[in-house]
Input
Amino acid sequence: MLSAAVVAALILALLCVLAIVFPQPAFAYRIAYQNYELWSDRPIPRAIEPVLDDVTRRWRTSPLYDRATPARIFICNEPWRMWLYGMHFSTRFGGVADVWLTRHVVIRAADIEANRIVPPGPGPGPIADAAQRPLSYFIAHELTHSDVSRRFGRTAMLRYPEWLLEGFADYVGKAGDFDYIANRAAFIAGAPELDRGKSGLYRGYHLKVAYLLDKRGWPLERLFADTPGDAELERWLRTDP
Output
């Protein structure tokens, strides 16, 4: 027979899974707008509607976009909700998509009227690349991860390189607000903002995706079916005009 401790651990694990799959009871406020359902632990101002309109503008740049796709978004203003429902057991990230079970999108504390997320800290300053990454960017970015899991399978996050997954989500989230020429020059010069490990940004990943989609004209299906190796792709970026 199972010990009491094992039974208690199994019950706790089950409760955690249920909380993640059905988070709605932990969020007191809800709005429905077009194909969006948005929950928050604080009152949701009407300013969310233009924010979601901007999400749609960004999301529609993806070949995977379908206006009938339901978008379920949870804004976690309280850190403990971000820690739990974000499934990273951390509060130091902008958003996350559950591509395994629910395809829910979880976003950190946000100033909806200003269309921005509240930085995870330290300090009160804005996040890096704040002008290109408002709240609507983070929502569109995470919805793109959900779309990828729908099209290429729930295990896509395990089967494809980070530069492709995050680069494509950044590509969609920024909706063309990306200077390819300047970022390529910065990449060739070894600028730290193009290095994910040094900057925490996806600009280098975005550059690779933009090169293949926009400069080489690859369809998205080919990008996922015939993903080039990192060394080969970086050589192309350095040598192609």
